[in-house]
Amino acid sequence: MLVVPVSAGAATRASAAPALPAWPASPHWEQYVEAPATLNLAPVSVVSVGGTVANPGGIVAGGHGDTTLTRSATDTGPTDIVLDYGRDIGGIPSFTVAAAAGSPTMEAGYSEAQQYIAADGDGGAPALGADGDPSRADSYTVSGPGVITNRYIQGAERYQEISLTSPGSVTLSAVGIRYTAYDGTPGTFKGYFLSSDATLNKEWYDGAYTLNLTQDTAGTQSGQWATEDGAMNLTARTGFISSPTNDGVLKWGGNWQNYTSRRLYASKLDSAAALTDFETPGTPSVDVILDGAKRDRATFTGDLSVAAQTLYDTSTTDRGAVAQDANSAVILYGIAPASRQAGIVAAMTKALSTPAGDLSVSSPVPASSTQIISPFIGSSDVDARLLAGDTAGALQLLTDEWGPMTAGPDGGSMWEKLAADGTIDGGSTSLAHAWSTGPTSALTSYVLGVTPTSPGYATWRIAPQPGSLSWVEGAVPTPHGDITVKWASSETGFRIAIQTPDRTTGTVVLPPGLTRYSLAVNGRPIPLSPGQTLITVR
């Protein structure tokens, strides 16, 4: 389909038409995929060295020779080496010892953020103590040559600090981490996204990689569930939630289902017998996405609250502050009428916007709230803005809030939260957080513009939101085959090409403001009317 400009009164004039916008012939989206090419990972660089460490670069990828740490009884400072693995990863650490003297204690600490690496790690151990290593640092007594393999998975780390805490020496010929998360290499992708904005591209693929890091394969669930009051809950036996909670994660009588039009799991969840489905090794045939890669926690959402005059409050008692979650949700779920959505978005921008992203709540902060930048709730903010037609505001928020997560010494995955000033909010903060990956779905659903209108994409809608972007292309997998969309936008016109599966039907909605243009579908001219333009494809 092509949309080309026609000058007023010159529709039939013989003249050269302006050049149409175009997308790249060979986009190479694979360059943005973060998944490692091999499962046996070695550090890529040395960050720092303390005390007596000979040939520190010997144990990094491409290094030569062994690395020796030596500590004497009179040493008062640390004897350590901090290594960078180049990206946030998760797996089983190992250490190849070539020689040792004095049977020293060797400690290995892990951190996702460089600023929080320490001998005892970053403090982000699993809150439930069920999945992965119960500590962010492991100690070993090294008495001679051999391979030390850690017993547990360290769920997410980019930095590793190896130190000696007692006198002696250890010579290491290799250190590494065997990657155990889902290895989402380019060959595993069923769809893709690419645009004229490299930061948005990074966000889409970093979101996908974050989900890889937080993905538990089928049959490996930790079994921390119980049925209470007709709902499925985490139980008091975990030591995490008091019983009864009545905060059901899955309500009684429901099934898990998604837009693949395939039932994922079915149970009324109304008896203890259902719990066996979630005990290790478990029986569900699908993978489970955890909260954060280094911590297996339950996620709780605040109450959606009552209407105020212009905005929506967080509860019947906390009134007056502008809340990001409540006001995003009322747009997403159709509670706020369309006539009020632009006003809600404008008020959120005024009250919550900062150079580092949108705040979770405005100032003065209610006593029951904490003011942070939450990419989890921010994902709903982005969706709400796109749904309300604020494409420019959504793209700006994606750049401000998620852009820094794609670069720098801690970039490459999506973070749980930031302090109000945009800095990482403590060492225990998850930097591989599944619920913060909203940009990946938002860019596909709203910017590329592909959404299902019935299960399995039997019917669909394609409604691109270009904003300031000059081109976007991507593919969305469905049970019937891929939906592929390519569009380009400029002052000279708007061009879109779609390919859809057989046995599906859908609607194409062109961006607003195209009334000056003529439309051609497969070379056949079609008149445009003022306002939104819909094309039904059968």
Task: Summarize the model shown.
With 538 residues, this protein is α+β, with helices and mostly antiparallel strands. Helices cover 14% and strands 29% of the residues. The chain is built from 6 helices and 30 strands.
Task: Describe the structure in your own words.
With 538 residues, the protein is of the alpha+beta class. The protein folds into four domains: 2-27 and 449-537, Maltose phosphorylase, domain 3; 40-179, Jelly Rolls (Sandwich), CATH 2.60.120; 197-217 and 287-443, no CATH class; 218-286, no CATH class. Helices cover 14% and strands 29% of the residues. It has six helices and 30 strands. The longest helix is centred in the middle third of the chain and has 16 residues, at 198-213.
